[in-house]
Amino acid sequence: MDKDILQKLKEEQLKILDYTVKICEENSLEYFLIGGTLLGAVRHRGYIPWDDDLDLAMPRKDYEKFIKIFLNQDNGKYILDTNNHSKYYWLPFLKVRNKNTIYQENLQKNYKGNLGIWVDIFPLDNGNKEISKLQSFQFRFVKNSRYLISMKCDVGVPKKSKGKTLIFKLLTILPKKFWVWLQNTIMKLNHNDNSKYFINLGSQYGMFKQTHLKDKYYPSKKLEFEGRTLSVPNDYDYVLTQIYGKNYMELPPVEKRITHNPMYIKFEDGKELKFDEKI
Prior knowledge:
By secondary structure, this protein is α+β, with helices and mostly antiparallel strands. The chain is built from seven helices and twelve strands. The protein has helices spanning about 5-25, 35-45, 60-70, 135-150, 165-170, 175-185, 235-245, and strands spanning about 30-35, 55-60, 80, 95-100, 100-105, 120-125, 195-200, 210-215, 220-225, 230, 260-265, 270-275. Helix 4 (about 135-150) runs antiparallel to helix 6. It is globular, with a radius of gyration of 18 Å.
């Protein structure tokens, strides 16, 4: 993606981020920068230069409060996508979108839902030790149900999941509402708020990388991100080392500096861009 286009995309995302953080701060909701966004804050004081998305996480109780607050107020151009409240949305985490924009990826050619530019927010659920049988089951189920629900929503299945397509097609006889309910129920199976771990079941990373000690998150710290001061886990070195390894401050080789593959972008000012299909 051209650098000027990438910068314009980031500017749109930062407006959504500002609105999201405003809601959190006005309602005393805990949030954290996570994943590549946290790495960007630590290593670059902003975006990783080639990155093109923003990731936040919230403890489950704050996450659900955020949804209720958002859905019960006028948010202007901003909308909320959750697989519970949006007919066509399929992912096990929410997106805050600008409905006056479009960012269409290659697997979304037939998608009927809103494709506005977004910020991701992941729920942090209660976890146990990394080797917990319950936790292993939760990660496997969420991963598989994610692909199943995506088929119900006319979102293409990634190539690495093609072998499961036949089984998923048989299971799609059941309504999306059932699978979303079951997925959310399984994500929240651990009701012990005094558990020592957070798990991020919606993440692309596996169980071991996304099972973190809660006391490494609290009290949250503030770091600079694109001229803003935002919340991060207290021991962000622990979190980043678990996900990316101890050399996370080193830049990866050029061939691993990957962005998404959009097929179409429309910005709020009306500018439109079409890209070659890459599936």
